[in-house]
Queue: 2 jobs
Job 1
Amino acid sequence: MKTQKKDIRALSKQELRDFFISRGEKAFRGNQVYEWLWSKGIHTFEDMTNLSKEMRAHLEAEFVINHIEVDSLQKSQDGTVKNAVKLHDGLVVESVLIPTKSRTTACVSSQVGCSLDCKFCATARLKRMRNLNPDEIYDQVVAIDRESRLYHDRPLSNIVFMGMGEPLMNYKNVLASIDKITQDEGLGMSPKRITLSTSGVPKMIKKLADDEVKFHLAVSLHSAIQETREQIMPFAKNFTLDDLRESLEYWYEKTKRRITYEYVVWKGINDQQHDIDALVQFCKYVPCKVNLIEYNPIDDGDFQQAADSCVDHYIKALEHNRIPVTVRRSRGKDIDAACGQLANKQ
Ligand code: SAH
């Protein structure tokens, strides 16, 4: 039976150095290969031109470079670009480039499908097929950076983990990808320009704080009433608001970085005064801001965006309590690239 070649990008720099030492070569060869793989982003061993032909053939015999391919690219009227990204095993995820006047943001996926079951999200219907590897997340960012330079004449400025999947259910790989994105040998981006969005997995939020991460945290709250949250995000039965609150207090205690709560206001679900009161109360536990997201319909009509007047009530109540609030308009709706619409329709 043919032995399977190893994915070379699963090796750390030290492991690459050790590989060369074990072959009687100089350790710095490992650094050279690492640089080719990450900061130079090459796809074949052939391209590693500072290695001898023989050495390249050795690598080729033992390893593969599993790179992604941007399979199809859709452009929205508002400048948003959606990539369907084909992985080495044929599965597909989506990532999105979102340009505004002052920044270009990459919205990247962390899983194929999703581990969680939010009723309002198209990705949840795909179920989770597998976690993405660090290099598969990194490659999405590289692809979007290229597109940003090509279509908007500027490099990527921000990254949000708000594509397909629950990043905290793929903790190790997501953090490894962020390491690569922020290292000088990778993309050298500041962690302050990265936001990880989670549905709220308390244990892992505490772990983020313990691991002293330097990026921002956003939590998809959508309701501060346990019963309501369970209805729309059934996993919340196991990850209760009390536990979430405790983990966020822990996060703030350790990082001193405020949280962003993402929140959609739906007709008949969370559009009453007691919903607003509960959110205001929840916002008092930890320094935060609220991002009111416009709902992007996903076909079956169970969920409908509440009237503007309801959203205004939320804004007034939050402002009255000195809680910063912003309203996020949808981008790329015409190509199903907006929040919660990523479902490999193609
Ligand atoms: N699993 C992570 C990240 C992916 S979802 C999380 O839940 O945070 C990114 C954001 O889009 C979340 O805030 C999510 O609640 C929101 N979202 C999901 N479906 C949506 C929809 N149909 N319309 C608007 N926002 C949606």
Job 2
Amino acid sequence: MNQSASQRLQSVRGMNDILPPEAERWARLEAVAIACLEGYGYKPVRLPIVEPTPLFTRAIGEVTDIVEKEMYSFVDSLNGEELTLRPEGTAGCARAVIQHGLANQAAQRLYYLGPMFRHERPQKGRYRQFYQIGAEVFGLSGPDVDAELILLTRRLWRNLGLADMRLQLNSLGQPEERARHRADLIAYLEGFAAGLDEDARRRLHSNPLRILDSKNPQIQEICAGAPCLLDYLGAESLDHFVGLQRILWDAGIEFDVNPRLVRGLDYYNHGVFEWVTDSLGAQGTVCAGGRYDGLVAQLGGKPTPACGFALGVERLMALCAAHGGGMDAPSPPDVYLAHQGGAAGRLAVYAAETLRDAGVKVLLHCGGGSFKAQMKKADGAGAAFAVIIGDDEAADDTVQLKALRDAASGQRRVRVDALPGFIREYFFNNDTAKKENGHGGI
Ligand code: HAM
């Protein structure tokens, strides 16, 4: 065997396999999130993972960490087109809305979920392939929509049993307001040129707002006295921001206005927000978003106000594992179907399909083996019942029905067509079984 063939193949660093039972918890979380999004009238979209590179450079901004150093970009060897694995979902969503004229007639509330790719240094809560669930609204300009997105996410935290999420808000105003603030900010920071670190010096004239977000305590100290963007907002921007806060107050949502919340993508204006937690260490931002009224026009579409958010599924899963109530152990099958012999095998397939028609979760034993070994597997799978079929049962279309978690119910021989009725009755009449198997009767 040559050297490369003997090397064990591994997943790419920072790109993880999500396996059972973890993947089942993911599916549940996604189902809870989708139910929540659909409860607010959001419709699903499925968008490409690969997009033209200029989409991201134009949307996210040339002088951002994502575009400067985190994109997985490559040239299509067939036609020389520059392509990129999407680092986020907003740009692609805006592209699709423009391409299909989606927002021409009516406002659109859309949602997506799927993998995003950023070439970051992997650590807990930060991966190179990670999953987002995102929502984007196109065609509505008022702060009521920004508030709706926040209400929606708050409902999701509640449905997942998460209590310790804090909301941070800021307004990035309008481009003219940011331009005035930027000039004053640069002048201020130039006065501290000697104290700036390499990163801040590099950003001073390209993206000074991001310096406010620095984690370096020395830079934070300098920034404490820097001009504050909120002081540059005109009447319209202030109205929007106050309007948003008023709806949140009315809805009983607590928040902090954080003037340092500047976001790492350039397309935002007006309100931006982040949901953060102290439970996840350094990567404490679980969900982030805001308004981006200029993006659609900037990408060549008709001017269309827009706003949205995306949450990081890995971070949310980690939080649910620590605090959430709703993502407990995956639900076991209702029935493990054990069988031995040719005729029994055929009846087993029939019995399994009949049960599934009635909504019963069935794990059909495959691969032969003794009844003793099969019963061990039935027990290990956590099934409520074993259905056992041997030659005798197969001869007269009956099965042995054995309750595995409830000794009192014992074992009985029943006709195969009566099976769904027996099992249904058991789940309706047995509260513990209902809870353990995750359904209120079948
Ligand atoms: P973002 O802040 O770059 O915004 O990402 C949103 C969320 O994705 C973060 O708060 C975090 O939970 C998760 N996330 C980001 N990078 C990673 C990573 N490397 N590993 C694990 N999780 C990560 C956006 O992506 C915007 N498109 C949000 C948006 C939608 N704004 C308006 N609409």
